[in-house]
Amino acid sequence: xxxxxxxxxxxxxxxxxxxxxxxxxxxxxxxxxxxxxxxxxxxxxxxxxxxxxxxxxxxxxxxxxxxxxxxxxxxxxxxxxxxxxxxxxxxxxxxxxxxxxxxxxxxxxxxxxxxxxxxxxxxxxxxxxxxxxxxxxxxxxxxxxxxxxxxxxxxxxxxxxxxxxxxxxxxxxxxxxxxxxxxxxxxxxxxxxxxxxxxxxxxxxxxxxxxxxxxxxxxxxxxxxxxxxxxxx
Amino acid sequence: xxxxxxxxxxxxxxxxxxxxxxxxxxxxxxxxxxxxxxxxxxxxxxxxxxxxxxxxxxxxxxxxxxxxxxxxxxxxxxxxxxxxxxxxxxxxxxxxxxxxxxxxxxxxxxxxxxxxxxxxxxxxxxxxxxxxxxxxxxxxxxxxxxxxxxxxxxxxxxxxxxxxxxxxxxxxxxxxxxxxxxxxxxxxxxxxxxxxxxxxxxxxxxxxxxxxxxxxxxxxxxxxxxxxxxxxxxxxxxxxxxxxxxxxxxxxxxxxxxxxxxxxxxxxxxxxxxxxxxxxxxxxxxxxxxxxxxxxxxxxxxxxxxxxxxxxxxxxxxxxxxxxxxxxxxxxxxxxxxxxxxxxxxxxxxxxxxxxxxxxxxxxxxxxxxxxxxxxxxxxxxxxxxxxxxxxxxxxxxxxxxxxxxxxxxxxxxxxxxxxxxxxxxxxxxxxxxxxxxxxxxxxxxxxxxxxxxxxxxx
Lengths: 233, 459
What we know:
heterodimer; A: alpha/beta; five-stranded antiparallel sheet; 7 helices; B: alpha/beta; ten-stranded mixed sheet; 11 helices; 23 strands
């Protein structure tokens, strides 16, 4: 086991009256790739949402057990979504929403800057974004388009990949990033996350596609079902 | 409410003449006499007053019963004479204008600046180049003095006093507003701008604006409003009449930011002749209640009418806005784009009318309503009224309501933005298509005002 980056203990989460996560324990080490599979409605996306701080996902009183959510020696439970992002947590959303009127460029510029990066020349930054767009299988025109506005499912996932590359987080939770991607897109995904893993990024890869196991070095594989995580061989 | 940023109040003691509160025949005669008006104008005023007295308060829309018509000053005159140059304007008045940046605007090479300070235009400048082209840009009072024939030809012909109670009231007691005349084939490249301002408690504002664009001419008129803080309700009932002659093009842009106690009840209408275009761009941020439905009467073949509007309703505000497009001739076209943001319990309504008469075959109209509701307390409604009297016409109506950008906000926060930043970015994106249509300095001002409106939610 490498240095722990994310430690989850006794997590019980509800949305409205419904319990969606039913006592979760999970450790993710630095540079680790954790794959989570399981049926729809089993709680996989709930985990992603709760980790990122979606306000609709709430801790329950949990039968008196003490929940723990440590990330990089910080208590995520006390942090807002924005602070979690700045701390190096990234979620690639299952259905990335469109934001009419907000350009990909503005989104990337603002998020890049709030993560403490300096942009010296906008022209160069734009060029960098255009290169990233090409790397994830979009064209450079997408940088000037509005966020996910009129994008296909696969294009939305590619834009998530672009931001993953741009923000280079410590831990990336990829919620079904492979669904909607074609074969070429899957290959790009595999290449990007394999490289980032080598450079030290940790991943929680939520997927229905167990075959990815053969393409990516996976350190742990878990199954989420009825709001519970269990090890899978 | 108390920290309203543009709340510069200067003393009202300096008014040269303050009429008594309330409305009477004596007052109407008095106003006309003080302005040295021709008899025909007095006659119209008196007829309008009679009409006003017998017409009921409109009940088909928001509640107007809270307006105390007896408790309003119907005429204020701050100084005896309009000024020719900036230096002649008294200090206290200049302070207010400095605060809203008028001289800066002038430095920015604006075409002309007409400022309304309460019920009288006191400072007016018109660049020489415009005068050479024969373009007239005056206060309505001055326009009536210098060009009585033109005024007589159009005044009350596009919006007659019998149109509605507030139009009758305006016609009876109107004061100030702009008179714009663009001769045949003259193109005015820079926007003509007028800043309006109410500055006395209970000051009634009854501007009357008339724009005549002769054949083949082109003009963009801009009015921006920004009212200082006062404590009790004030009424603003303007009338705007626009005549767009053959092949002419008029764009009329309004940035309305009256203080949140103002009742803003405005009648705006344009008649649009053959191959002519009329565009209304209307941005409503302020007021307690706004009722405004700019209209285009498409009289000539292939006439085109357009309405682009933004409304931001916050706590305690009702913005009842929309447009009317009346197609009277063949192959006329119209488009209405209505964008609204409701927040903090504010309420927006879109009320629109498309009428395509039997003669208007081959006409087309498109209406798009796009509402953004930021919280559970706020509300947005649409009341379309379409009358299509020919088979050979098309009407498209699209209405979108986005209730809260909750998912959008989460998305942006997950990329490191604060909630207020996220909301600001979403709102800016929502409004961007309209901002692109505004003169640059107005887009900047509007962005600033929207941000200011969002204080608390936008950092």
